[in-house]
Amino acid sequence: MTPKDTGALLQIRNLEKRFDVDSGFLESLKFRGGKIVRDTTSVHAVNDISFDIGRGEAVCVVGESGCGKSTVARMVANLLQPSGGSITYDGQRIDTLKGRDLLPIRKKIQMVFQNPYASLNPRMTIGQTLEEPTKYHNPDANAGEVRDKVAAVMKSVGVDPNWAARYSHELSGGQRQRIAIARALTVDPEFIVADEPISALDVSIQAQVLNLMLEMQEKHDITYLFITHDLSVVEHFGTKVVVLYLGSICEVADTRTLFAAPKHPYTKALLSAVPQLKDDKPNHIRLKGEIPTPINLPSGCPFQTRCPMANERCRVEKPASVTQPDGSLVACHAVEEGRTEPGIESGVKEAV
């Protein structure tokens, strides 16, 4: 069934990404049993994930550092080539497109990067930064039309058009991120990939940028793929949440369902770590053990080495995502079998 049939604007199916650790062909050659064999070592960054994003949604991908969030974002934006699986946008497969075939997709899908101090060219003025994509994607526009478009976009993100002559080093972090959002809006995109766009900003500025993105969503009917590790931001911004652990999906649910009734043990542990005003005696769920290396993934469930409810089945069989009565998708044998662990349940009730 195509995304148009299911109502999904973006459809990700069995997506995988591996990064080779070996720096070259010679380094991958090993001597074993009297023979020279080639043995490549790879980082398994994203492992067989599937989810949909409907038009107008703000889907948040969450998880701890190194779980593959940014890798997913860059594959959707076509900055990285998947090792397997497919990405379909509005009925068209886009992960196989190259060169000039990508231009229409570049105009529809834009990206806002994490660090506003690195994503803007210090040698270009703000005006030049915003004029460049406008001219590139609208080659028939004259100079006056380009200037008008840039001024209109700057006003829409709360930036004075007179700042066009300034350089990025003359602006604060929040002002730079507004320019980064404006740059994405110059080509009138339908879909914006935001890779932790507020993590490098002061807390006082974060709410301003989030509210700006929500305002742009309402004005321009924009769909978001929002990468973050801050669950309080997810509760404020997202319509649906995808929880990743070690490159695999643990749980997919709409935001209200996830915060009201989390099901996967890892999701419960994440939510228990969110600071609460009522936390006089916070009852955090403390996971034991270390995160396995993505070079040598554990057999079975990727979370089984730290899960308090893991059994032998979890150690040998990777769980499939199963639809729950409330519509959420959960990949967990313990949830499927109805297993419970007292500390998990009490910890999450205190947190939520």
TrEMBL record:
Domain of life: Bacteria
Keyword RNA-binding: no
Claim: Transmembrane helix is one of the keywords in the record: no
Membrane topology according to the record: Peripheral membrane protein
Main location: membrane
A Gene Ontology BP annotation from the UniProt entry: transmembrane transport
GO MF annotation, one: ATP binding
GO CC annotations, alphabetized: plasma membrane
ABC transporter domain: residues covered: 31-271
PANTHER family xref list: D,D-DIPEPTIDE TRANSPORT ATP-BINDING PROTEIN DDPF-RELATED, TRANSPORT ATP-BINDING PROTEIN
UniProt similarity note: Belongs to the ABC transporter superfamily.
Name recorded for this polypeptide: Peptide/nickel transport system ATP-binding protein
